[in-house]
Amino acid sequence: MSVLAQLTEDMKTAMKAKDKETLSTVRMLKSAIQNEQINAGHDLNDEEELTIIAREMKQRRDSMAEFKAAGREDLVAQLEAEIAVVTKYMPAQMSEAEIKQVVADTIAEVGATSKADFGKVMGALMPKVKGKADGKIVNETVKALLG
């Protein structure tokens, strides 16, 4: 089942349960996917849908960090609830050990030896971990292993 179909089913369930928080988040995700579909002019494949879900997750995490810094606990609580809903649609996340292994394999694969090869490593690495690992953690791991 595609992510869009799953969102539609979950939206119906949330409506029946009168779960307003889940419903609003699911509607936002569904809207983001449908807008991207309209812009692309074709139905999105699973990978494209997961890219949109990952982008939505990143936006919420970034907003939460800003709200915490500003002391807006009311908004932080709302975003935590949204993140919990969005997480259900994300693929299983890689552990730090798995990320480190994939990074080490990619460094060996491209023959990187110094920090100057950072871009080359990231270019080869990101398609492998897309949606499965936080880009910030991947970035830090690459820097640590190349340093």
From TrEMBL:
Superkingdom as given in the UniProt entry: Bacteria
InterPro entries membership: Asn/Gln_tRNA_amidoTrase-B-like, GatB_Yqey_C_2, YqeY/Aim41, YqeY/Aim41_N
Protein name: GatB/YqeY domain-containing protein
Organism from which the protein derives: Periweissella ghanensis
